[in-house]
Amino acid sequence: MALVLHAIKNHKSPLKTLIAAEYSGIHVKYSDNFEFGVSNKTPEFLKLNPIGKAPVLETPDGAIFESNAMARYVTRLKADNPLYGSSLYESALVDQWIDFSSFEIDANVLSWLKPRMGEDMYLPPVEEAAIVALKRALGSLNTHLACNTYLVGHSVTLADIIMTMNLLFAFIHLMTKSFTSEFPHVERYFWTMVNQPNFKKFLGEVKQTESVLPIPSKKPSQPKEAKPKAKDEPKKEAKKEVKEPAKPKAEAAEEEKAPKPKPKNPLDLLPPSKMILDEWKRLYSNTKTNFREVAIKGFWDLYDPEGYSLWFCDYKYNEENTVSFVTLNKVGGFLQRMDLARKYAFGKMLVIGSGPPFKVKGLWLFRGQEIPQFVLDECYDMELYEWKKVDITDEAQKERVNQMIEDYEPFEGEPLLDAKCFK
Asked: Which of 80, 239, 363, 397 has its CA 20 to 30 Å from the CA of residue 125?
C-alpha cells in the first residue's frame, strides 16, 4: 500500500512530509479530491483522526496525524537516513531543533498570522507579545546560524525541513525585508533552503511579502448599507436637471473639509527650539562606531534645555519581573503605546539583570519642561513608573544619561538583558 496524504495541497504542514519523503526516496501521494471542511468531516476520515484535523498520513499499519510525527515516520522508513543525523547525538539535536521550531517559531508565527487571516480574534496585546517572542527566537536562531550553514551537521536534516516550513508563512505573509534584515543569517538560511531542488519541486518560486497581511475589517456591512441610499436618491431626482447632482458633491466636499481642522497640540505652540529632534534621531541611528565621541557629544551639542527636558523613569514593581520574556513584552508594549508621542520624544528603556527579578529603567527626552499631559492622559503605562527630572548641572546625572543612551554595560553594576530605543 502506498502512503496516502490527506491534506490541503501546498500547505506547509503536509509539505514537511513530502519534502522529507523526496530526500528519502519514499513514495507519498495526495488522496484524491480532498476538500478541507468537507472530506475531513466524513465518517471515513474521522476513523483516521477522531479530531477531524488534517493532515493525516495513511500507512499500511494505520493512520498518523500531527505533521511533525508524519515527517519523522517517513524519515525513519529509510535505514540510517542522514536526515536524522549521523550519530545519536546529532539525532537528539535534530529533535531539539524540531521542538524549537514548533514551540518558539511556529507557535508565535501562528499567533501573529491567524487573527490577520480572520481565523482568530485580533487583539493587539496578543499580537505584540507574539512578535516580541518571535524576534527573541529569531535572534537565537540567527546566532546559531552565524557559524552554521544547517541546523545540525553539514547537510540538510529533518530539522531544516521543518524549520523552513515553519518560517514559510512568516516570510510570505508577515515578515517584510525590513523585519528580517535584523536577522541576516536567518535570511541567508531560509533562501538557501527554499532553493534546494527537493524544496523547490514543491514550493516553486518563493517571494517575500512587501507588507504585513492587513487586519480584517470589522465593519464590512457599513458600505453595503450606504450604497442603497445613494442609489435611491438619484432615482427620485432623475426628473430634475442634469446639473442637480453636482450640489450634493459640493456639499459633501464641504462636509469632508469641515472635520479636517484639528486643535493644535500644545507642544506645537511652544517657542521654537534650536534642537531639531529628527536631527538627533538620525545621528543616533547612523553612529556605528566611537559612539561616545560622536553621538553622545553630538547630543549635548544639539540639546536645548529651554525647549526640551530629560527624565529618568524607574518601574515601580520590579519584584514582579520574574520571567525575562514577559518583562521584555511589557517594555515593548509600553513603547508601542508611546507612538502617539513620537514627534515629540526620544527614549531608551533598559532591562537590567542577569536573573530575576529584572529591573526596568528608562531615559526620556520630551519637548517642553514637563512630561506632556496628553501622554500622561493616554498612555496608562506612565503611572507604572516613578519619574524624575534630570538635573543636567549634576555631573553624575549627566553621566547616567550618557550611559543610558549608549547602552553602557555593566549599568550600575549589573549586566543588560536588553536595551530598547524609542525614536
From this structure: 363
- Taking the C-alpha atoms of residue 117 and residue 211, their distance in angstroms, rounded to an integer, is 14
**By the 8 A CB rule, do 186 and 142 touch?**
yes
Q: Is 417 helix (H, G, I), strand (E, B) or coil?
A: strand
Count Cβ atoms below 10 Å from residue 283 Cβ, excluding itself: 17
> Which residues does 223 contact at the CB level (< 8 Å), separation at least 6?
none
Report whether 346 contacts 283 (CB < 8 A). no
Q: Are 357 and 320 in contact (CB under 8 A)?
A: yes
The residue among 417, 255, 247 whose CA lies nearest residue 322 is 417
- Parallel, antiparallel, or unpaired for β 359-367 and 345-352? antiparallel
Give the pTM: 0.54
The answer to whether 329 touches 133, Cβ cutoff 8 Å, is yes
Query: Alpha carbon of 340 to those of 75, 334, 374, 375, 377: distances in Å?
Result: 52, 11, 9, 8, 11
Q: What b-and-e string marks burial along 379-417, b requiring 16 or more CB atoms within 10 Å of the CB?
A: bebbeebeeeebeeeeeebeebbbbbbbebeebeeeeeb
DSSP state of 289: S
Q: How far is CA 196 from the centre of its chain?
A: 27
- Residue with the three cell numbers 514593581: 317
Q: How many contiguous H segments (helices) and E segments (strands) does the chain have?
A: 18, 9
Measured CA to CA, the distance from residue 22 to residue 205 in angstroms comes to 18
Q: Coil, strand, or helix at residue 12? A: helix
Residues 6+ apart with CB under 8 A from 313: 361, 362, 363, 364, 385, 386, 387, 388
For the residues 354-380, what does the mean pLDDT come to?
92
| Model confidence pLDDT, tens digit, residues 151-200 | 999 999 999 999 999 999 999 999 999 899 999 999 999 999 999 999 99
**Nearest alpha carbon to residue 212 among 268, 174, 182, 249:** 174
Strands 28-30 and 3-6: parallel
Cα–Cα dist 13/36, whole Å: 14
DSSP-assigned beta bridge partners for residue 56: 6, 65
Residue 299 cell numbers, joined: 547630543
Q: Is 128 left (phi over 0), alpha (psi -120 to 50) or beta?
A: alpha
CB 350 within 8 A of CB 407: yes
Mean pLDDT of 46-66: 89
